[in-house]
Amino acid sequence: MAASVLHLLETLETRLEQNKAELIALREENQQLKQQLAALSTRASGEPTASPAEHGTDVAAGEEVPNEVPEHVPAAVSEPATPDVPEAVTQPSPQALLKQWYQRYPHAFFKGHTKPLKVGIHQDLAEREPWPSKLIRRALANYVNLPRYIKSMREGAERVDLDGQPAGKVDKEAAKHANERRQEAPTKNRAERPAPPTKSRKNKAQPAASNSSPNDEKLPARTPVPEKSEQKKPLTMEEKLKGLQQKFEGR
Predict the structure, then answer these.
(1) Residues 6 or more apart from 125 whose CB is under 8 A from it?
(2) Which pTM was predicted?
(3) Cα separation of 59 and 50, whole Å?
């Protein structure tokens, strides 16, 4: 989502710059047309003794000039909206632009052994490249942040321009800054690397059904306790007689 928003902003900025440039060109063209019209008017007024045929020719020429102005003005007004679409679509990404530089400037941008670039190389690229300054800076940042480029930034190393010509040397401050970035890179990569998952073999060996504690295995099996049968007391003679009497009365 963020990448699409950035791409849209860059496209709008490119279109705005192109519209401004075309508007300036249209103003200059309009100014030239006004000057030509004024010159024709002066020439027509400066020849009063001309013959009728010549006067008719001047008048005809003067009549043609107003007709030419409307032909240019509507075309100039309708031009800014048309050429912007293909240019915005064909604008490369920073990575794609860097790949083009590898082929366009082989003595400055290297894929193998790398040399430090000239201080202010961005201005040289802006003069040669047709792309916006923001796109050039992003593509250049992708190159100078490569580990091999940071490694090449050592004190006294020779810098090169776009043609591969010597353009100064790496000073102490730049080399120190590159060294700090080189030391921070492994720490940053280590911090961003996800921790490997821990393998618990003991947990895998134990079955899922072994939720019972080991103390349960040591306990002996419980034996059912027999219920104590109540001992019947012997009936007395009176109880026996009473029982017989109840049976007899029940009949």
Answers:
(1) 136, 140, 162
(2) 0.42
(3) 12
What does each of the 251 residues of the chain score in pLDDT, given as a tens digit? 666 777 777 778 877 877 777 888 788 888 888 888 888 888 887 765 544 444 444 444 444 444 444 444 444 444 444 444 444 558 899 999 999 999 999 999 998 889 999 999 999 999 999 999 999 999 999 999 999 999 999 999 999 999 999 999 999 999 999 889 888 866 555 555 555 555 555 455 454 444 545 444 455 556 555 555 455 667 787 788 788 777 777 65
Take residue 251 and report the two structure tokens written for it. 């009949």
**What is the DSSP annotation of 104-131?**
H-TTTS-SSS--PBPTTHHHHHHHH--S
Question: What three-state secondary structure class fits 167?
Answer: strand
Domain 94-191 sits in CATH 1.10.1710.10: yes
Half-sphere exposure of 21 toward its Cβ, with a 13 Å CA cutoff? Answer: 8
Coil vs helix vs strand at 221: coil
